[in-house]
TrEMBL record:
Residues 52-154 form the SXP/RAL-2 family protein Ani s 5-like cation-binding domain. PANTHER family: PRION-LIKE- Q/N-RICH -DOMAIN-BEARING PROTEIN PROTEIN (PTHR21593), SXP_RAL-2 FAMILY PROTEIN ANI S 5-LIKE CATION-BINDING DOMAIN-CONTAINING PROTEIN (PTHR21593:SF43). The keyword Signal applies. Residues 1-17 form the signal peptide. InterPro entries: ANIS5_cation-bd, SXP/RAL-2_related. It comes from Caenorhabditis briggsae. Transmembrane segments: none annotated. This is SXP/RAL-2 family protein Ani s 5-like cation-binding domain-containing protein. Pfam families: ANIS5_cation-bd. Keywords: Signal.
Amino acid sequence: MMIFLLFSSFLMSTGHAQDAAVMPVILSSTASPEIETMIDTPAFLNSATDSQRKEYIELEGNPNLTMEMKQKALTNWALRCGNPVNGLYTQYMAEKQTLQEQEDQRMSVIVAQLSPEAQQADKHVRGITSNLNQTKKEMDTNVAKQLKKLPKKVYYELTFATQ
């Protein structure tokens, strides 16, 4: 029986709070699960060669790339690797996008119940996090600046409601 587990230990740095990988796990009838891939490593990286993994890690960890540049570089990396890496990477990114959309919908329902001030603050923060023409560090700094500007009441309402 195939089930999917959510793991957030291997982040893809999209700038969104919900960054998780969906990893397949095959459960056998015995007490211990037979794990199809290493739990912390996405299947596409398990299928990559050592040099391909090294290149991926260098791209993923490059703090000087904007998030858009990083996404393009990683997509090109997967294409250069060919299959099965490219297919598994494409599947991973599609699953990640689905999870992000689900999280965005969940958050929209929560935020709709907040005060108008908190809704406006959330709109500003989402505007920052959706801007892919900045590095992860720049995004984090801009979000922190925006949150620091908020009245304490709005800050607490927004942060507690969205946890």
